[in-house]
Amino acid sequence: MNTLLTTIVLWLSTNFGLPASNEHPRVEFRPPAEIVALRYGNVVDRGSQAANALAQPSPREVVSVYDHATKTIYLPEGWLGNTPAELSVLVHEMVHHLQNVGKLKFECPQEREQIAYKAQERWLNLFGRDLLRDFELDPFTLLVITKCGY
Fold first, then answer.
1. In terms of pTM, does the model score above 0.70?
2. Burial category of 31 from C-beta neighbours within 10 Å (exposed 0-12, middle 13-18, buried 19 and up)
């Protein structure tokens, strides 16, 4: 995993001007419902039907998360990094890690997502893929989720 993370750091630094860091995040694997809870807080009782629905997220739902405090990337159980789409999720979260360790400032949390989605899209493009095909993320949705709402 360290070799993969180093490769992604170098790619992100070269292509997006993010600060290169040898301080890699921890990477942990969790059930999808736990990842959603980490992203939004534990707002769902794990025994409820809603929690069961969250256990199998659709492509547009949260599939991974980066915890700034613990410098940990949480990926779904079963993640192997065998496809461009799976690797693009790691690329996205590594952007957040480099933003964090580089102490980069943003007007709002949504603005932090701009570079992460651009990097993920460019990674997918290397393999003839894109965010729309692999994650059902169209340009309008990306615009909305990456702009500060004042």
1. yes
2. middle
